[in-house]
Amino acid sequence: LHTMVASGRLGEWADTARLCRILRGRFREHLDQRSCDVLEFWTGRTFDALGNPAKGRAKLSQVFETAADASLRCDAALQLARIEMYANDLQAAMLWVERARSEAGDDRHRAALVTFRLASLYMLEDKADRARELLSEVRDFADQNGYMRLNGDATVNLAYCDLYASKFDAARAGFERALALHRITDNRDDEANDLINIGQTLLWAGRNDDAQPYLERGLTIAGELGDQQAVAEAQVHMGAAVAMTQDPDAGLTMCQDGLEAAVQLEMSEIVTSADLHLLRHALSRQDSATVRYYLRRLATAGDRLSPPLYKKVYETLSNEAADLLGEAGPR
Known about the structure:
mainly alpha
């Protein structure tokens, strides 16, 4: 059981899944109730990471409803908030954050995790100033108390605040600081995500060639770990970079593969990124039919375009599309 938990905390999802199966198949009857609850929690997290958020949601909801340990209920609620946030159901995510807060009690570390998740929601609601304030509090708490991974996670989201504001140099510096912190904890899953974040920052900044080595390395690590969410994100950005610099057809296929996976994984933000990349690619080819298709998709994106970066890119591409199609754009 301890080996499974350690594997999960390191993001070694394929290994965690294997250990979950062994424990459930051979040793479950020998586990006490709390150990069974821990097993169910990590089974739920593994379902989500390996590409089945519906099963992850169901398993973690069961843990929240039945576990006797308040700390485990808090952890389950935080993971459910993350799943709903990825699916862009921000109202449901906020409900889970409030449930997690009620279970955190006097546990200052878990209270900081709740604040971290709340700040993540504020980022998607375009409340950047409040998000920065809370994330800075979490980072300072983590730094003062030796919570290295939480320090790195808060640093990641502070960098995301810069990315959403199109402050690409600051965002890259923040993601690189997070990478250094996560490497100290030897968490390869976090390392993969940090590399992908550096790559996508360079991509949004128009530095397609510079982006590719980071995205390729992040994709490789994520694939080795079985993290299907990180794989999908890397494919979307890597495909866009390849399409714009090397091989349009191969890049397009990779980006579309990532988009299909992101839809299945309920990763709404990655779907938005893919739609924007694919619209840009269609414009570069002056493919009017495909341009219209992605304009229609993005026109119904709603809250998925809340981050200022996405709004800015969408408006720019829409104006380019208007020039191509001879139609009025949102100038």
